[in-house]
Design brief:
single chain, 199 residues, alpha+beta, outer membrane lipoprotein receptor (LolB), chain A, 10-stranded antiparallel β-sheet, two-stranded antiparallel ribbon, 12 strands
């Protein structure tokens, strides 16, 4: 084989490798799709935290129904029994636990901490479940498989761990972790959310 022929093959190989690299890079930087005001999701969550020197853990599942101007979250125990229903509108937040009188408050995160014993960041989850957040500088953050971590404006550290289809043009989150060093008397709070595949 002549030197010219070898050089031609080498140039061709480098070019093809570069093109393959470009294709891979473009799929990795694809961000989530447009934000939707109407979504129905279901999944599982696990929560771990420290309180009064004790480690607390819980597991369960959830249903998430979001409409323009409202969110309803149903929290269920591992047996599938409803433990709490959260209803959120621009005017108020209401949490109803099984066998108890509904409680309302202006701030949903404060309400969940007071009633559940730990803060479920419902206001943030409206964005997070779709791969969005507001970062520490107040800028809108769009997640992707290549850009999957952010610290939110209210102090949560988010990591989008897995995606329904990481090679999709507009990937959808599947697993996300949310952590806080401290929230009130709660320390080392960690919430893991697994979103069921969407039809």
């Amino acid at each position: 084989m002549t030197i010219t022929r070898r050089l031609s093959l080498l140039v061709l190989s480098v070019t093809l490798a570069s093109l393959a690299g470009c294709a891979t890079t473009s799929s990795n930087v694809a961000t989530v799709g447009a934000y939707r005001d109407t979504i129905d999701l279901a999944g599982r969550l696990s929560v771990n935290y420290q309180k009064d020197g004790k480690t607390e853990s819980l597991n369960g599942s959830f249903d998430w129904a979001q409409r323009p101007g409202s969110v309803e979250v149903t929290l269920m125990n591992p047996l599938g029994q409803t433990e709490a229903v959260i209803q959120l509108t621009p005017q108020s937040a209401t949490l109803t636990q099984r066998g108890r009188t509904p409680l309302s408050e202006a701030n949903i995160d404060t309400l969940t901490q007071r009633t559940l014993g730990w803060p479920l960041p419902v206001s943030g989850l409206r964005d997070w479940l779709q791969g969005y957040a507001v970062d520490a500088q107040g800028q809108r953050f769009s997640a992707s498989p290549a850009r999957n971590e952010v610290t939110t404006q209210d102090g949560w550290r988010l990591r989008f761990v897995e995606w329904q289809d990481p090679n999709a043009a507009q990937p959808v989150p599947r697993v996300l972790h949310a952590t806080r060093a401290a929230v009130g008397d709660i320390q080392d709070l960690s919430i893991r959310i697994v979103i069921n595949p969407q039809g």
